[in-house]
Every structure is written in C-alpha cells, then in structure tokens.
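pasting for ref
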Amino acid sequence: MNYTYRPRGVCSSRIEFDLEEGKLHNIRFRGGCDGNLKAIGKLLEGADATFAIEKLKGNDCGGRGTSCADQLTRAIEQAMAEQAG
C-alpha cells in the first residue's frame, strides 16, 4: 500500500513509500538533501519496516530534534498502525 506523509520541522516537504508485508519499497522524499535522501531510499529498499525504525528513529539534524530520517520513522509507524487498525 502506498503512503504519503507530510513531515514537520525538516527541509523535506513530503515522504512517500510503499509498505507491503512489513517491507519498505519506493521511498521518495520531496525536498531536503537530495543525494542523502535518495541514499536512504536505496539502503532501505526491501528492508523490514521495524529495522528502519530501530536504526533511524531519533536521528537529529542540526539540533532540530528531528530529521528527514526520523520523520520517515514516524511515517512508517503511522502506516503500520493504519495497517494493523
């Protein structure tokens, strides 16, 4: 299933991804640090959603208290809750 998330407190304005059987696919960020965010998408392609949360949750960018990677974990958690729901 495809999910779209509007992150807060970061440069990225939208995160999109697919979550199928607990695995992440097609992670895309709009805005933000293009190369770094594309790399995150490539590294997490096919990864278990809980693995991504464990590795990236709480990551901070410049003292903001969050980051695009952290916002991705929030999006994944929300998507997982919707699927369980």
